[in-house]
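Quick one, probably user error.
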């Protein structure tokens, strides 16, 4: 049985940001919350939207300025911007999230807490029997996490030093707006980290045990768009088309990810993030080519389908899979990925790190071949 969920209305196009007000009006909402990445605090394009919304609706604006990735405590603090502290009545009916994955995740968390009044941590994991969230409109400003189309929202439990989340189908954004204007000023390091995140999503969901031919359609197509556009999107600020196609590739990868699953690269990004402060996207990105190499060297040849689809060299599944492996390592060289590895201190002897990695076997088991914490640590040694 194949069971696929895609719940998000999607609009793609340069300039679409400014049609959000019309969408909200047509949907009948009157009180609008905005969660905006602080990097857009002085952005004239975003201000045009805010002015449009302020003219039509009662608005509450919050600029997201957390230093790293969001935690549960911040949700509990910030939720009172959007609901009354005394009687829990809601100040907003819909939230527009403008930012990268952390910002959109944060907005999903807030939208959950509008009608669910316990501390955020009590909804950690995959909460059941919770009251509906208020709708979220998601405008990604990075092409990577695909939070605009997924139901996941990642939060760190700082007390336990673990990344968990509040993952409920209530989180599916009602509308995703992929507007290439929004990724134009994204710094290289952030755009790279995001693009690699999307590659991780597509490759891991393609290979993971729970894939099916429907999810592979999204994953394969995602890889095609990401590979074809990542260099232009990162290096040529004027290429609106490349940035739009990157947003689309990341979005497709996200659909594949939450409908199929992930794997060791995504899983290892969590300890690397919590213990070593490596951002999620580039952390998984560092692992990805070595994971593909590990799988190919151990006889996993399904990557040959992707290589064939991309027109890479090779006649046999073995040759095609190896071509794909080479292709991704070369791409990383062109994007200068490994110079970023030097920026982070990842000490494979650090016990906090290895203890966390030892907890990940369940996630590693989604890999099509055996993959153990020791394999993960071996890869980290190669990179750092
Ligand atoms: Fe990711």
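Nope, works fine. Designed sequence:
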């Amino acid at each position: 049985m194949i069971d696929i969920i895609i719940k998000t209305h999607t609009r793609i196009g340069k300039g679409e940001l400014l049609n959000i007000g019309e969408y909200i009006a047509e949907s009948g909402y009157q009180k609008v919350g905005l969660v905006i990445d602080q990097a857009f605090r002085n952005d004239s394009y975003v201000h045009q939207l805010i002015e449009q919304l302020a003219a039509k609706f009662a608005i509450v604006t919050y600029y997201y300025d957390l230093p790293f990735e969001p935690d549960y405590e911040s949700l509990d603090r910030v939720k009172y911007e959007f609901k009354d502290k005394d009687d829990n009545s809601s100040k907003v009916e819909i939230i527009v999230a403008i930012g990268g994955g952390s910002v959109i995740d944060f907005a999903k968390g807030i939208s959950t807490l509008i009608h669910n009044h316990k501390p955020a941590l009590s909804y950690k994991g995959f909460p059941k029997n919770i009251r509906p969230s208020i709708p979220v409109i998601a405008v990604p400003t990075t092409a990577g996490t695909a939070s605009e189309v997924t139901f996941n929202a990642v939060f760190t439990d700082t007390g336990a030093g673990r990344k968990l989340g509040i993952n409920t189908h209530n989180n599916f954004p009602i509308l995703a707006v992929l507007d290439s204007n929004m990724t134009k000023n994204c710094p290289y390091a952030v755009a790279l980290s995001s693009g690699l995140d999307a590659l991780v999503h597509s490759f891991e969901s393609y290979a993971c045990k729970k894939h099916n031919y429907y999810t592979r359609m999204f994953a394969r197509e995602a890889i095609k768009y990401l590979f074809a556009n990542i260099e232009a999107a990162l290096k040529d600020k004027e290429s609106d088309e490349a940035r739009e196609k990157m947003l689309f590739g990341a979005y497709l990868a996200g659909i594949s990810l939450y409908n199929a699953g992930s794997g060791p690269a995504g899983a290892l990004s969590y300890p690397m993030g919590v213990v070593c402060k490596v951002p999620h996207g580039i952390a998984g990105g560092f692992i990805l080519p070595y994971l593909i190499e590990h799988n190919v060297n151990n006889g996993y040849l399904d990557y040959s389908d992707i290589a064939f689809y991309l027109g890479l060299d090779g006649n046999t599944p073995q040759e095609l899979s190896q071509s794909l492996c080479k292709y991704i390592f070369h791409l990383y060289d062109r994007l200068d990925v490994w110079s970023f590895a030097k920026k982070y201190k990842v000490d494979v002897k650090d016990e906090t790190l290895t203890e966390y990695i030892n907890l990940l076997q369940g996630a590693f088991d989604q890999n099509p071949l055996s993959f153990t914490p020791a394999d993960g640590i071996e890869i980290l040694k190669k990179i750092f």
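Residues 145, 197, 200-201, 266, 280, 284 surround fe (ii) ion (CB under 6 Å).
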